Amino acid sequence: MNGWRCVLRGGLGLLLGLLLGASVEASGAQPRKKSPTAAPPALTVGLPAPPPGSEGDFPRPVTSWLEAQIALAREGISCGSIDGVPGAQSVAALQAWQEREALPSSGALDETTREHLLLTSPPLVWYVLTAEDLARLQPLSPTWLGKSEQTTLDYETVLELVAERTHATPALIRRLNPKIDWTQVHVGTVLTVPSVALNAPLGKPALVHISLSRHTLEVRDADGHLVVHFPVSIARMAEKRPEGELHVTVVIPDPNYTFDPELFPESAEGRQLGRKLVIPPGPNNPVGVAWIGLDRPGYGIHGTPLPEYIGRTESHGCFRLANWDAQLMLDLAWVGLRVVVDP
């Protein structure tokens, strides 16, 4: 991922080596004898202490809901935005994992679950901001017309960029970095963030199952084993919620979006415009970073610019995922893939 660098404790050795490199005496000068008992001067390295949870050996059991959310994300089982709180979506994610592992599906982070849900590496790592990160930032127009005139709908702030890259709420990123002034970040700023890279490649998908009542989307392989689990937002109006069997017809990364005023009767701007607009791609595009079209006109699985609201708010008819989950679906979906929608 562009702009991504996670620095672990091993990087300190390189930095110390550079700072303590051998010095060269001036030409012709006599070398000075060093006292065998003289201690080297104290050296302060300008990096923070290793993130909490980095100590000890891995793999190890999770010790908190924050670590559980991170461990689940590494298995392709999403709670939505990682926040360290055992909310309904986190409980549903844990239940999905417990079922996959043939454990009692309690949704509780009990002793048995902790013993089986393992972290294979530290849950938190360093993220060092790059010039590429900062170059992506741009204001987001509040109007449909203004959005249509932008070249891309990229991130507005560093906090938004880092939170989305690490599947976290902005509040969690702030909490993990209490000394950071978010108005003064710069290239080289070191942040503590969740480490959410997948542990291993995922299985081959054979079926997408969407539960309207549970607000979940799950992918299973040909043997019925769980591949991924995501929270999903569904249509506000019951008549716009498709049920039964559908199929994937197209898979598009970084799509644009056509704003049609007829689909947004509540929009005063849309009524005034009276015409369609093409909205450019980007994570703040209305359908986020992915469009997986279905064989019902106008319906699809897609991302969102507002990941914290997934599963809690309703859409105009499509199936809405957090951008990171929609990105993962891009790697799994294929034209013809069955999608079964149950009440």
Order of strands in the sheet with most strands: 8-7-6-15-9-12-13-14
Mean pLDDT: 86
Count the helices. How many? 10
The share of residues in helices is 10-25%
Residue share in β-strands: 15-25%
**Sequence stretches where pLDDT stays below 50 over 5 or more residues:** 1-45
Radius of gyration: 24 Å
3D structure, described in words:
- The protein is globular.
- It is α+β, with helices and mostly antiparallel strands.
- It is 23% helix and 18% strand.
- The chain is built from ten helices and 15 strands.
- The longest helix is centred in the N-terminal third of the chain and has 13 residues, at 88-100.
- The chain has two domains: 1-7 and 57-200, no CATH class; 207-342, L,D-transpeptidase catalytic domain-like (Beta Barrel), CATH 2.40.440.
- The strands form four sheets. It has an eight-stranded mixed β-sheet with strand order 8-7-6-15-9-12-13-14, with helices on both faces.
Summarize the structure.
By secondary structure, the chain is α+β, with helices and mostly antiparallel strands. It contains 10 helices and 15 strands.
Structural descriptors:
343 residues, alpha+beta, L,D-transpeptidase catalytic domain-like, 2 domains, three-stranded antiparallel beta sheet
SSE arrangement:
Elements: E1 6-7, H1 10-19, E2 60-61, H2 65-73, H3 88-100, H4 111-116, E3 118-119, E4 124-128, H5 131-136, H6 144-148, H7 158-165, H8 170-176, E5 190-194, E6 207-211, E7 216-220, E8 226-231, E9 244-253, E10 257-259, H9 268-273, E11 277-279, E12 290-294, E13 300-302, E14 319-320, H10 323-332, E15 338-342
Parallel strand pairs: 6-15, 13-14
Antiparallel strand pairs: 1-4, 2-3, 4-5, 6-7, 7-8, 9-12, 9-15, 10-11, 12-13
Helix pairs in contact: 7-8
